[in-house]
Amino acid sequence: MDNDLQKKADKFLSGEEGRRIVENKAEIRRIAASREGERVKAMLEKNGFEDAVRRGDTAALRDALSGVMQTDSGKQLMSRLQELMGKK
After folding, report:
1. Mean pLDDT across the stretch 32-37?
2. Comparing 10 with 88, which gets the higher pLDDT?
3. What is the mean predicted confidence (pLDDT) over 33-50?
4. Cα-trace Rg, the chain
5. Element (H, E) at 88
6. For residues 26 and 82, is the Cβ–Cβ distance under 8 A?
7. Phi and psi (nearest 5°) for 47?
8. Distance between CA atoms of residues 44 and 24, nearest Å
9. Residue-wise pLDDT tens digits, 64-79
10. Any idea of the CA torsion for 54, 56, 22, 36, to the nearest 10 degrees?
């Protein structure tokens, strides 16, 4: 991870939202390993999500996430994460 991205990640993780993520790390990993999580991961890999992150290509990231969020697996995964984070 480049230095600028690492600084932004550290800043986010030190805030309230980031602390909630850290506190729920085991549950987030369990959700990510679920059937929906694996499907979403495969979709993101297919759409070049990791490369877009490395390049800082926000348009490609937005497109990839938008596409995934239109699928049943993406919607289910997001719903589970929102519940976990107290957003529902």
Report:
1. 93
2. 10
3. 93
4. 14
5. none
6. no
7. -90, 5
8. 22
9. 999 999 999 999 999 9
10. -80
Instruction: Please name the residues in contact with 81: beta carbons below 8 A apart, sequence gap of 6 or more.
Output: 28, 31
In the numeric block, the tokens 């070049």 are attached to: 48
Contact 66, 1 (CB under 8 A): no
Q: How far apart are the first and last CA of the chain?
A: 32
- Tallying the residues shown for the chain, one arrives at 88
| Separation CA 26–CA 6 (nearest Å) | 22
Return the pLDDT at 42: 95
CA dist 28 → 22, 80, 88 (Å): 9, 9, 16
Tell which residue, 76, 50, 49, has the closest CA to residue 63: 49
Asked if residue 18 lies in contact with residue 12, where contact means CB atoms within 8 angstroms, the answer is: yes
